């Protein structure tokens, strides 16, 4: 049987020459040694986000039972679907109004430092639940700083079904729940940011 390895070529920050590049994703057949690229271009709007490590870098998921890639762009409501012989966009937006705010550069001695905006919204990544055939899209909606320099971050998971139709959106504070989790037959587990013990870890379980 074929054994396939998937590789991604991420830009650390997006630059102008990257806009004409297409070979961001690759399939490597470990038996034959063949490399096949899964090509796509960045949308034109990302010319506004050069040098931005928050709004200029894509993320992706591979859905193994359908042999397709889902590409998440940080400032796009839609998701790019890469099938074997076609590509298309599906609506993956949050119910909240999002604001995509570019960061700023700041000279520091001999260097120019890029400071991402703390206020910007951004679609961060997707995760696929192979048990319930759900795609979870994580979005940072808004970060707020209190008078005592503590932060709250309204975030959500947008849930899409197997046909990429939106079925739900779950809102939470990512200062309390860590958004990168794992799937089991019993549900989706997310780790609590504040733990009560050094000996045991606490998780939140979602089951749909």
Verbal overview:
This protein has 208 residues and is mostly beta strands. The chain has strands spanning 4-8, 25-29, 35-38, 59-63, 68-72, 78-82, 87-91, 104-108, 111-115, 122-129, 134-145, 151-160, 166-173, 182-184, 187-191, 203-206. It has a 4-stranded antiparallel β-sheet with strand order 4-5-6-7, with no helix packed on it. It has a 4-stranded antiparallel β-sheet with strand order 10-11-12-13, with no helix packed on it. The protein is globular, with a radius of gyration of 19 Å. The protein starts with a strand and ends with a strand. The model has no long low-confidence stretch (mean pLDDT 90).
Query: Low-confidence runs (pLDDT<50, min 5 residues)?
Result: none
Helix content: under 10%
Rg (CA only) = 19 Å
User: What are the secondary-structure elements, in order, as H or E?
Assistant: EEEEEEEEEEEEEEEE
- The best one-word shape is globular
Number of strands: 16
Helix count equals: 0
Profile the largest sheet: 4 strands, antiparallel
Distance between the termini: 33 Å
Structural class: mainly beta
Could you give the order of strands across the largest sheet? Answer: 4-5-6-7
Give average pLDDT, whole number: 90
Strand content: over 45%
